Amino acid sequence: MDYPVNDINNCESDHKARSLQASETHELNYEVAILGGGPAGISCGMTLLRSGISCCIIDRAVFPREKTCGGLVTAKTLEEISYIFGQNIIPQIFCNETKHVKMYSKTGCFADIYTETPFRFVHRNIFDASLLDSYKHAGGCIFDGQKEYEIDYDLHKINLRNHTIRYKYLVAADGASSHTMKMRTNRDIHLGFCVETHIRKALIPESIDEVRIYFGILSKGYGWVFPKGDSCCIGIGNLYSKKTDYIGTLKSLIASLTDSKDYVIRGAYIPYGHMRTPAISRDSMLAVGDAAGLVDPIYGEGLYFALKSGRIAAESIAASRSNAISEYKRRISPDRKIIHQGKILQDIFFAPVNQKIFIKLAPKHPSFIRYYCENQILT
Questions:
Q1: What is the rounded CA–CA span in Å between residue 63 and residue 12?
Q2: Cα–Cα distance between 335 and 212 in angstroms, integer?
Q3: Does pLDDT of 177 surpass 80?
Q4: pLDDT confidence tier of residue 189, bands split at 50, 70 and 90
Q5: Do the beta carbons of residue 274 and residue 257 sit within 8 Å?
Q6: Which of 150, 176, 203, 333 could disulfide-pair with 260, CB 3.0 to 4.6 Å?
Q7: Angle at 334 between CA 328 and CA 336, to 5 degrees
Q8: How far from 167 is each of 93, 149, 152, 242, CA to CA, in Å?
Q9: Which residues of 314-341 are buried (b: 16+ CB within 10 A; e: fewer)?
């Protein structure tokens, strides 16, 4: 059953870029409604448009918006970006790249290496807005600034502030704390938590143009310093625990680099190895990205899985309009296995005794650290 887009003033059938005006009231039909305008949702929307499938994105925020994220773009993530959005978007999204990596423990730097493949970084407010612009230029509709909306799962209907959206498939791309997935699965997932800030490089006495990773400051996580243009992103991430002093730990890391107090700390929950069901048959709902718990359990990388799962969800709908749920489960299965295996390795990797062995042997085997970065993080 097709769900054509109704012709309205700012959402023309010829797919011009548009954003619907709050003053209008309409009931609109789309084959797919996507909750969340981050990389997972935009990836899904972009792929659907190319398949000729009507869709819309609904987001609580107005873009550009701030997003807590280290912003590391790995080689495989870059491939997904190029495949979904094309090469033309690449020059405008990166704020920094470097091949220099330093690793630290409580006793100081224990590894200093250069990689073949560069670490690339983005500011998420610019990155997400650039992807969204590509989606809109391709003819995609977005309802942003929807701070409150109601979903009728039985009638496949979403009530927005001034619009009613009817859909066949619903894609949950609304993040780690997805209200949608909590409501439909009646269970939560164990989450990680990260806090970070950006500090201007001019306020940091030491010149930092390399990636810095800090081990041993958290029980199941690490700290980082990522160079981003004229600033540094400083943050920590760990399996969430009320006993962990996230703010205090981050401030200690910041204090080791600068005396400046000119910064704002932001925090966010992230999936950390525990996945939600990828699809719910009776609701015709597919979960992608953080909403499905698709984040690397060791490194916390989420952009790659967000972009890929959004694309796979859209391709599954295009391949099997009547059985997209089963198709998506089948196609996303290999990536879920990768994350499941990573969850098993998480306990091994962060075990104190193994961390000590790693820190002790790393200076003697720089080629191993280089291989580790190239093959386990970047590719």
A1: 21
A2: 28
A3: yes
A4: low
A5: no
A6: 203
A7: 80
A8: 32, 15, 11, 39
A9: bbbbbeeeeebbebbbebbeebbeebee
Cβ of 25: how many Cβ atoms within 10 Å?
10
Judge whether 184 and 283 are in contact, CB under 8 Å. yes
Strands across the sheet containing 221-228: 72-73, 108-121, 96-105, 211-214, 221-228, 231-239, 191-200, 266-271
Tell me the C-alpha distance between 137 and 134, whole Å.
5
Residue 276 burial (CB count, 10 A): 23
Give the pLDDT confidence of 110-128 residue by residue, as tens digits.
Answer: 999 999 999 999 999 999 9
Q: Which residues are within 8 A (CB) of 364 and not within 5 positions of it... i.e. 6 or more apart?
A: none
Q: From CA 176, how far away is CA 69, in angstroms rounded?
A: 13
Cα(334)–Cα(223) distance, rounded to whole angstroms? 29
- CA-based nearest residue to 70, from 196, 182, 208: 196
- The one-letter code for the residue type at 304 is Y
Q: Phi, psi (5° rounding) for residue 291?
A: -60, -25
Residue type, 180: T
Of 25-29, 38-42, 151-155, 354-358, the poorest mean pLDDT is in 25-29
- In whole angstroms, how far apart are CA 222 and each of 42, 141, 247, 286, 287? 29, 39, 14, 31, 28
Distance CA 159, CA 284 (A): 18
Q: pTM of the full predicted structure? A: 0.89
Instruction: Compute the CA torsion angle 359, 365, 368, 369 (nearest 10 deg).
Output: 50
**CA nearest to 298, candidates 268, 335, 340, 248:** 340
- Check whether the bond before 64 is cis (ω within 30° of 0): yes
Nearest to 77 by CA among 35, 121, 41: 121
